[in-house]
Every structure is written in structure tokens, then in C-alpha cells.
Amino acid sequence: MFTHNPIADLSASIPPIAMQWYVIAMFILVVVGTILDMAHKKSAKYFFENAKKAQKSAKRTLGGGEKASLAIQTVAGEVLTSSEFKSVRRRISHLFTMYGLIVFIVATAVLVFAYPTPEQPAPTIWPVLWHLGALGLAFGGYWFWFRIRVDVASEGVKWYNFNGRGDLFIVGLIATATFALLWSWTLGAGWLNWLFFVLFVASTTMLFGTVYWSKFAHMFFKPAAAYQKKCVKADGSRENLPADYDLTDPAVQKRFPDIPEYMGTNPANMGLGINREPPRHY
Amino acid sequence: MPTFVYMTRCDGCGQCVDICPSDIMHIDTVTRRAYNIEPNMCWECYSCVKACPHQAIDCRGYADFAPLGHSVRVKRDEEKGVIAWRIKFRNGEKDFDLLAPITTKPWGTCIPQLRDVSAPSKELRDSELLYNEPKYLRLDDGDLHTLKSAGLKLKEGVYY
């Protein structure tokens, strides 16, 4: 169920070179779509202008080492663990979807380019990763579609309503994972298997071919936004936000005498406040 | 000063949707980020600005009384129990911070237990006064009361 290589079975009907060109075409579509998206939204221009604006009100200049350290923090936090999400279920669902997609794409590329025929048997790990990646993607995607997206505090959209451009990406992901698994698990089932294969290819083409219109490109500008957020904090410009004060610092207490007067010299942690419950009191 | 959302900061968590008293903060169905659907109906209560965990919401002043270039930003830190404001004038020269406590006790520990309070009497029900209205607020009994005449003492702290 998980250990057979569906790509090798497919090579009996479709030559490996055609599969390899298909993967390359999808890669090119993602690159072109992302460039067009950046040009259309002017996201790169926005970030550069923001950085220039922040530099004007910066209280100190960041060194190269400091910038590199912030970049590493961004990769370790926002990129690899989706730490930007305050909602825990959104974060877990996002992690399943993200890692599922990455594992699925890498496993597909390895199987298509290195082990495309039964004469070159793939190590068991790659077909297993291919299936697990698709399962993770489907789990995260369906969780988002049926439980998170329908929540009023999030979007309040019924599960059977399709929102056009807003849903292209998630539908592409779910359809790709679902039809990939169904195709793999019905190998040898004749026309049904071919139907799932055609749907799998169609949904993959939709997923990678609609980057310009869908939310696919968020993986490029979200890390940039997270990095910039860390930079403005470090250089003191803070986008005009007030500083994070240490309430136990005597200098802060002297400057704001209300703090020691009402809260004492060592204020307690007051707990989570409105964050004690998730936002669903609509 | 209707609110607006920095799309690159917002993660669509829904805190602003939850808290907006006018129900005008919504999640955009295409970008899955929050936005103010009707700025004309925004009464600038700043609730969403304070509730946003990413400080992704800001207020844009109308140009007639708050000329462009100024900035009024706020950060509500619930765990520390304080609120901090930063006011920047449009010439950039006046830039100052304010910091104030918003609670002196951990959140949720001082919710009034109304079931423990005695029920209103018939006289109180027939009166124009609010249920359980403190005596020192009553203006029909002599004159405006002072803390001393009401038998009260000024206590430190924030009350609920």
C-alpha cells in the first residue's frame, strides 16, 4: 500500500522522459508564476521601500552578522515551524500541509528522475515518503477545508462554497494529494485507475500552473515580511510601535510612576487575557 | 480614523473579527487576511488595534484634523498588564511613549459573582435607580457625596 513505486508502474504506458519533462515544466511554471506575481503585486518594491522608510527612523544600524542571525532566526522560526501563526490549529494544519507538500514533491522528483522504471527499483523509503507526504498534505488540507475555514472567526465559508481565486491553492493541494493516493491505490484497476491518473495530472497542473492567481506565492513574501519585522525591531525603528518595556527596570518605573504605584515594583504575570480563549465569540 | 490592516503582518487569526463592536472587521476570502469592510462605520475604538497579536492593524487619521505623516500606535501587553502608546507628530520631532497599567490583578480572577449578591427589594425594583447602584452615586439623598461622607476610602489599584 505504501511501499510500491507508482511511477515505475506508469512507465509501462508513459515513457519516463515524458514524465521528467512534465516535472520540469511544472517547475518552470512555478518560477514564471512567482516572478509574474511579484511584478504584479510589486511585493519586492514594497519591501525595499519599507526597508528604506525604516532606515530613516532607525536608532542604530544593523551589522552584517546581526542581519544574518536574524535571517537564520526567520528560517528556524517562521519558515520551518510556521511560528507566525498565533492560532495553534492553523499552525499544526499548516505544518502538515507544508511538510506534506515538500516531502511529496521531493519524493516525486526522486522517483521520476532516479527510479522511473521497474528495472531500477527504488529504495523502499522513497515510495513510503511519497505516500506519507500525500497523506500529510491531505490531512492538513482537509482539516483546513472542513474545520478551520468554515469557522466564522476565520472565514465563515461553508465547506461546499468555492471562493474562486482564494481557494485555488488549497483546492489544488487537496485534489493533488487525494488523486495521487487514489491513483496509487487503484493501480491495476483499469479505467478507474486511469480516471484517477488523469485527475491527478489535471490537479497538479492546476496547482503549479495557477501560481500567478493563487496564494502559492505566499511562501516567498511571507518569510520576507517576517525577516523585515525582526529587522525593524532590532534597529529600533519598530514601525512606530512603542518599545517593549521591562516593568521591573527602575528607569522605566521612574519614567512611568503609575507602574510602581499601581502594580508594585515587581509586577506579576497577568496571564493571557483575551487570549485565554480562541476568537470564536462572534 | 478608520482602521486598516498591514497585509504582510496579518495571519488571519480572527481576533479583530471577534472583538470589533461594529462587526466591520472581516477576513478577506481571497487573501485570507483581515480587512475593514466599511471604514465609514468605524468609530475608531481601537479595539482591533489593541487585540491584534501581530500589531498588524493601524489607524489612518482623516487629513483635516490629523494631517498625514503622524502616527499613533499602540501595543497592549496582556501578560505584563500594561498598554503602551507611541505618538509621533508629523514633523517627526515630537516622538514620545506612554505606558499605563490596564490591570493590577491576573485576568479572570475578579469577575463579579452576581449570584452571591442579594436580590433587589421591591422598593429598589420600583425605583429609578440601577440595581445595586452604590449609595454614593445617589444624588437624590441630600447632595453629591464625597468619599468621606459616603464612608469610603480611596484604595490603590484598578477596580472591576
Number of domains of chain B: 2
Q: What is the CATH topology descriptor of the largest domain in chain B? A: Alpha-Beta Plaits
The profile of the biggest β sheet of chain B is: 3 strands, antiparallel
Compute the separation of the termini of chain A in Å: 44 Å
- The share of residues in extended strands of chain A comes to under 5%
CATH class of the largest domain in chain B: Alpha Beta
Order of strands in the sheet with the most strands of chain B?
5-6-7
The helix tally of chain B amounts to 3
Regions with little confidence, pLDDT below 50 for 5+ residues of chain B? none
Distance between the termini of chain B: 29 Å
Which regions of chain A have little confidence, pLDDT < 50, spanning 5+ residues? none
As a percent range, the share of strand residues of chain B is 15-25%
Rounded to the nearest angstrom, the radius of gyration of chain B is 21 Å
Instruction: Give the biggest sheet of chain A.
Output: none
Strand tally of chain B is 7
* Overall structural domain count of chain A: 2
> What's the pLDDT, averaged over the residues of chain A?
91
- Which two chains share the most extensive interface? A-B, 54 and 49 residues
- Count of β-strands of chain A: 0
Number of helices of chain A: 11
Query: Helix and strand string of chain B, N-terminal first?
Result: EHEEHEEEEH
Task: Summarize the topology.
The complex is a heterodimer of chains A (282) and B (160).
Chain A: H1 6-10, H2 16-41, H3 43-56, H4 64-81, H5 88-114, H6 125-148, H7 165-185, H8 191-209, H9 218-234, H10 250-255, H11 258-263
Helix pairs in contact in A: 2-8, 3-9, 4-9, 5-6, 6-7, 7-8
Chain B: E1 3-5, H1 15-19, E2 25-27, E3 34-36, H2 47-51, E4 57-59, E5 71-77, E6 82-88, E7 95-101, H3 122-126
Antiparallel strand pairs in B: 1-4, 2-3, 5-6, 6-7
